[in-house]
Design goal:
The protein has 279 residues and is of the alpha+beta class. The chain folds into 2 domains: 185 residues, Probable tRNA modification gtpase trme, domain 1 (Gyrase A, domain 2, 2-Layer Sandwich), CATH 3.30.1360; 84 residues, Aminomethyltransferase beta-barrel domains (Elongation Factor Tu (Ef-tu), domain 3). A hairpin with a 2-residue loop joins strand 14 and strand 15. The chain starts with a strand and ends with a helix.
C-alpha cells in the first residue's frame, strides 16, 4: 500500500515543563502510558461527556503534539488557551499541517494505536513526504477495521466516547483520575449503558451516501458514515441491531440490504434478549 498525505489536518504543540500535567487533567488519554513512538487517540469532552474535540496524541521529547482536523483546530486552541491560565506552557498551532500515513516503520514515524489494536501496522509521520497516492488504501483499511473519524462518521458534540469505541482503542482512561467529562464516561463504563457503537457495514451493491439512515422493521437504528463502494461504517444501536439479526429481520441502508459486524478487535457482541434480561 502506498503512503497517503491527509489533506485536512492541523497540529497544536503544547510545550513547557508542565505540558503533560496540564493535558493530563483535561483530555481522555492517559499520557503516562503514551510511548515515545506511539500515536494515541484522545478527546477533550464537554462536561456532559460528549466529544467536543478529537485528536491523535504524540510525544516529541517534553512537547506533546495534538493532531486534529483543520476545521476544529482554532476552536481547540482557544479552549486550551482558556484552560491555560498561568500554567508555564506554550501553545502553538500549525494549520494546515503535513501528516502522512505510512504502512512501514520509518525514522520519525509514530505507530497508530487504533490500528495496532486491530493487528495492523499503520504509522503517522509529521512533515513533507514523497509518494503519497494511497489515500484510498488508508480509507479502505480504516473502514475494514472499524476505525471511525469525526466528520465522516460522527459529529462533534453529538457522540459519546463509547459510541466511537474510545473505550476500546486506548483513547479513554478510567484510572488516571479526573478530567473534563470523566464522571459521565466512567458511569457509562461501570453501568454498561453504552448502546451505540461503530459497526462495519457490507452490501452486495454500492452503499448509498454518508448520512443515509439504517433501518430495521422500518425504524432507524443508526446512520451510515464513511462509504467506499459496498463497504462502510455506521454508528448504530447495537441492541436494536441485535434484535433484527436474531429475528432474521432485514437491515437496510436506504433501500440497500446490508450486513453489520462489530470490529473483531473490540471483543463486543450484539446483545441478545437474554443479555438484556440479565443487564
Amino acid at each position: 500500500m502506498q503512503p497517503a498525505t491527509l489533506q485536512d489536518r492541523a497540529v497544536i504543540t503544547v510545550s513547557g515543563q508542565d505540558a503533560q500535567d496540564f493535558l493530563q487533567a483535561l483530555i481522555t488519554t492517559d499520557l503516562d502510558l503514551l510511548e515515545d513512538a506511539e500515536a494515541r487517540p484522545g478527546a477533550l469532552l464537554t462536561p456532559q461527556g460528549k466529544i467536543l474535540f478529537d485528536f491523535m496524541v504524540t510525544r516529541d521529547g517534553t512537547t506533546i503534539r495534538l493532531e486534529t482536523g483543520t476545521e476544529q483546530a482554532e476552536a481547540l486552541l482557544k479552549r486550551l488557551t482558556m484552560y491555560k491560565l498561568r500554567a508555564p506552557i506554550s501553545l502553538a498551532l500549525t494549520n494546515p499541517a503535513d501528516v502522512t500515513i505510512r504502512f512501514d516503520a520509518t525514522p520519525g514515524a509514530y505507530a497508530d494505536a487504533r490500528f495496532a489494536k486491530a493487528g495492523q501496522a499503520v504509522y503517522r509521520v509529521y512533515g513533507p513526504a514523497g509518494d503519497t497516492s494511497g489515500a484510498g488504501d488508508y480509507d479502505r483499511l480504516r473502514i475494514s477495521n472499524g476505525i471511525a473519524v469525526s466528520g465522516a462518521d460522527y459529529a462533534l458534540q453529538d457522540a459519546f466516547p463509547h459510541d466511537v469505541l474510545m473505550d476500546k482503542n486506548g483513547a479513554l482512561s478510567f484510572k488516571k483520575g479526573c478530567y473534563v467529562g470523566q464522571e459521565v464516561v466512567s458511569r457509562m463504563q461501570h453501568r454498561g449503558t453504552a448502546r451505540r457503537r461503530v459497526v462495519i457495514v457490507a452490501a452486495e451493491t454500492a452503499l448509498p451516501e454518508t448520512g443515509t439512515p439504517l433501518t430495521a422493521k422500518g425504524r432507524s437504528i443508526g446512520v451510515l458514515g464513511s462509504v467506499i463502494g459496498g463497504s462502510g461504517l455506521a454508528i448504530v444501536r447495537i441492541d436494536k441491531a441485535g434484535e433484527a439479526i436474531a429475528s432474521g429481520e432485514p437491515i437496510l441502508a436506504g433501500d440497500v440490504a446490508v450486513t453489520l459486524t462489530l470490529p473483531a478487535w473490540t471483543g463486543l457482541d450484539f446483545p441478545t434478549e437474554a443479555d438484556e434480561a440479565t443487564a
